[in-house]
Amino acid sequence: MLRLPAFELARPRTVEEAVGLLAEHGDRAAGLGGGTDLVPNMKHKLVTPEVVVSLAAIPELGGLAVAEDGTLVIGAMCPIAKLAAEERVGAGWPAVAQAASLIASPQLRNSGTLGGNVMLDTRCRWLNQTFFWRKSLGFCLKKDGSECHVVSGGSRCVAAASNDSAPALMSVGASAVFVGPDGRRELALEELWSTDGVRNKRCEPAELLVEVRVPPTAAGHRGAYGKLRDRGSIDFPLLGCAVRLDLDAAGAVLDADAVLVALQARPARLRGCAELVGGTTPGSPEFAAAARAVAERAGRKARPLPNVPGDAEYRHAMVPVLVRRTLEAAGAGGGPVHPL
To answer: What are 162-173's pLDDT values in tens digits?
Structure first.
C-alpha cells in the first residue's frame, strides 16, 4: 500500500494568504488544487512537502467567464470538466474545450483543475514510479540521482511536458496570471515553459497561478486537439497536437498554428504551419496537400525520446499522422480526431 507522508494542511481563504504561506515555507510547501497529480506524487515520494496549501476555500480561483471584451478568463481552480462542458468555450475556443475533454477520465476531470493541468510537472517513465522501483535503479537525474536513464550521459533532464491543455491554450495565444510576494504579473503562456525537465516553469515557488486569459477569436476561427494514447481514457498523451485555423471571409486560411506536446520538457510549436496552409481552403485538394506537407515537416522535426511509455519509434511514426488528421479535423470544423 502506498501511504502519504506526514504533512500539515493549510486552508487559506484568500490569494494573499496562500501566497504568504508559500513564501513562508518555501520549498517545504506545495499548493493543492484538485490533488489528482500532487497526491500520487507524494505517495511515490517524488515530492514530500511539509505544508500542503489547499486552494479549495478561495472562491475567486474557481471562476469561468467571458469578459466584456470577449476574453475567456479561466480561474486556476476551475474544474476541467466544467471547462470542457461550457458551450461558450466550445464555440469560441474549440481546441481548448476538446483538449479539456480528453484529459484523464470523467472522475479525474471532475476533481482536477485547469491550473493543475497547466502547472503539471514533467513526467518520465523512469520517474513516475514507486520509491522502491526508483531506488532499485539508483534514482534518476530529476529526483534523488545523477543519471539520466533516457539519454546516456545526459546532463539535462528530458522528462516530458504531458499537459493536454498547454498546446491548445498556446495555439490561441493564452496568457497566465500569477500572484506572488512582489505582486501580480501576466506572461504569454508560451513564455512560461523552459527546456529543463527538472523545473520547466519560469515562475518562483511562492508565485501562485490565479487565472489563464484567452483572447477572443475571430469569426473564422477553427480549432482541434488530437491525442495519441493507448486507451481511450485516463492515459497521459503519448503525443498531443493542437491546431488553430483562422479563415477569411472567403473561407481561405488567413493564419494557422500547430503545437505539439509530450515530446520534450516544453510544448513545441511547429514552425511554418501558417506558410504552408495559408491561402488554401479547408476541404480542397490544395488544403489536403498543404496538410500533408505540414505533417511531413513535423515528422522530420519531431524526435520522440523514450521518456514516456510507448515505443519511441511508433510515436515518431505517428507524429505526421496525428498532425495531418488534427489539421483535417480543424478544417472540418473541429470534429473528433481519430489518430489510429
So the answer is: 999 999 999 999
